[in-house]
Amino acid sequence: MNNTYIFRNYTIEHIFQGDDYKFSGYGDISIDQSRECEQILFLYFIPYRMNEAAILAEISDYYERLCHIVYESASKDIYVLGLTNYFYESLSLGDAAVNEAIGDFNRSVSSLGDRVHFINIDNFITKKHQNDLFDVKYYYTYNTIVNPKCSKEFGDWINEEIRLYKRTRKKCVILDLDNTLWGGVLSEDGIEKLSIGDEYPGSAFSDFQQLLLELKRTGVILCLASKNDEDEVRRCFEQHVNMILKFEDFSLTEISWEEKEKTIYRMIQKLGIGMSSVVFIDDSAIERERVSKSLPGITVPDFPKEPYLLCSHFSDIFRTHFGYSQLTDEDLTKTEQYKKKIHADNLKKQFLNEDEFLYNLQMKLTYCPVDSTNVQRIHQLINKVNQFNLTTKRHTLVQLQEENEQLMISGLKVSDRFGDLGLTACSVIIINGKHASIEEFLLSCRILGRRIETEYLKYLINHLYKQGVRTVYAQYTQTSKNSGVRTFYEDFGFELMRQDNEITFYKLELHTKLDMDSRYVWK
Amino acid sequence: MEIAYQEHNKFNKVKEKIRHIIRNLFDEDIADDFNKSKSDKWDSLGHLNLIVSLENEFSISFTPEEIGGIFSFEDLVNTVSSKFHIR
How many whole angstroms separate alpha carbon A32 and alpha carbon B26? Predict the structure, then answer.
């Protein structure tokens, strides 16, 4: 699989390593960067917060974000990981409301359309111990919900789920009769002595027939290929009181004493389907081997040794080969009303545009000149941030603490309606009379995709203007990791002066103050 | 004297094992003065991969302060050794 764009709200780089994956900023829903990718993965985890109202607000917001992404990304397949609060006990007091919100989100996903595919995270977590899934230490140090120690397993699992969706669904099951649909051999034991019905092992065969009927309900073709006498078989289906499948449930039946591989080949030709669309089920290992050897492409699963294993064995196999449409079919009936409701009332409202989304975040920005309380954090950012970093000049703590009137060092604190994101951007500017030069300008990836960078730069420039600065110089130094911000200064309105290998120089003449964006509140 | 020698031996074993782990992870030769600024691969993701590998290999657990305070091969060796009370 290549080129997956992942919308996410926590660190997942350790799960999906390599060039095939691209990531949004945390909580970022801007769609532009996803356009080049083949498919989209929406990977959100419920927030690690100690405040129920905030958790609930975020979860309902995730759905809006997902709607936005579905709406904006016209034709791509979108895979959505279900939410769960299994990773950690979110709040022991308020779990009921959180669980309900999670359930609402998960149920709504499949009603978003045919190209939105739901990945049920329960299938993964039931196999794991909670402590292995989440390590709060890595939450605090790396902002990640998935414990790095199971990141490979988790990534492999998601990729396998996506692969299952992509596999074309098979169309047909061809079944043997004796010891497959019932216990015993019809031509030897007679109708009365066959095991099917209430008592084990008959009950296991009944359940298996029920499972096959269920498969038929989702559009899978059932066929019979049996070495038997056709009249006797018909009589058996008609007369046996416990028989669940009826003879009419089978689209095509070939009952003769001919070799099975020949029979099956003819059946597949009659049906006009490919060999790879067919699953053949027979209890006899010899028949299975002959069929799979002479008919390449056909799927021939093992048959369980004991009847009680029939359903658990084959429901797994059916899920793999016939699975996903079954899920959408199920949703068609189960969630029909739900679907209508969502489309009518909510969807228009939910499909908000990006402007509205940013506005709804109610972001508050605080300009923080460097001081003893924040210098450590600014130092850390300057030496850590790679992606949104225009120059990637590293500085020592001493340089940042230098008392110099010409040096304007600042950080930016960001909060939104969900909580505090902390000091997540900073800059270093040198002022010399009417001239100023932006030495450093960088943002933590935590706040990417909110256009905070533009607002912060405007604020800085207005600040400079007030101090009499009329020309601002800036530069972009290319590194292996910051190509995403290559055109940042140009897009902002800077004039390109010259390019010197990997360094591009810009300037901006100031004539008046710049207008600030009303979506941000400055404190 | 004997005890000091054993200590020294253990320390070197730990050191070489760490060197080996980093070499496998970053595919680079690791000199004693190897540090973050000398490697493109030792970025924040590389750091996480490294921490997790060491935790698994040595069956130890780093504190968040330790994770944030490691910048060089030497830091790694000292931090891991301290878990085994060597030096």
Answer: 32
Report H helices in A147-201.
151-166, 186-189
Answer whether residue A393 shows pLDDT above 70.
Answer: yes
CA separation (Å) from A244 to A181, A206, A250? 10, 7, 12
* Radius of gyration, CA atoms only, chain A: 31
A17 and B45: CB-CB below 8 Å?
yes
Question: If you ran DSSP here, which 8-state letter would residue A346 be given?
Answer: I
Q: What are the strands of the beta sheet with A520-522, ordered from one edge?
A: A495-500, A503-509, A471-477, A435-443, A419-432, A407-416, A363-369, A520-522
A83 to A24, A37, A62, A63, B74: CA distances (angstroms): 18, 24, 10, 11, 41
Q: What are the contacts of B61-67 at 24+ separation with CB within 8 A?
A: B61/A137, B63/A137, B64/A137, B64/A140, B64/A141, B67/A141
Residue with tokens 């008609």: A238
Give the tens place of pLDDT for each residue, A154-209: 999 898 888 877 777 788 999 999 999 999 999 889 898 899 987 889 999 999 99
Of A113, A96, A117, nearest in space to A43 by CA: A117
* First-residue to last-residue Cα distance in chain B: 14
Question: Which has more pLDDT, A468 or A123?
Answer: A468
Average model confidence (pLDDT) for chain A? 85
Query: Which residue of B35, B45, B71 is the best one to mutate when testing the A interface, meaning the one whose CB has the most A CBs within 10 A?
Result: B45
| C-alpha distances out from residue A462 to A304, A436, A455, A457, A493, Å | 75, 12, 11, 9, 14
A216-240: per-residue pLDDT in tens?
887 788 999 999 999 999 999 999 9
pLDDT tens digits, one per residue of A346-356: 433 444 567 77
The CA distance from A264 to A275, in Å, is 10
- Distance between CA atoms of B82 and B87, rounded to whole angstroms? 7
For A14, the closest of B40, B45, B68 (CB atoms) is B45
* A141·B68 Cβ contact <8 A: yes
Question: Which has the closest alpha carbon to A249: A272, A223, A229, A282?
Answer: A223
Residue B55 sits at the chain A interface (C-beta within 8 Å): yes
* Peptide bond just before A47 cis, omega within 30 deg: no
Please report, for residues A58, A98, A102, A115, B84, the alpha-carbon distance to residue A80 in angstroms, rounded to integers and kept in the order given. 16, 19, 13, 10, 44
Q: What is the rounded CA–CA span in Å between residue A148 and residue A125?
A: 15
pTM over 0.90? The answer is no
Q: Are A436 and A489 in contact (CB under 8 A)?
A: no
Consecutive H or E run containing A288: helix A285-294
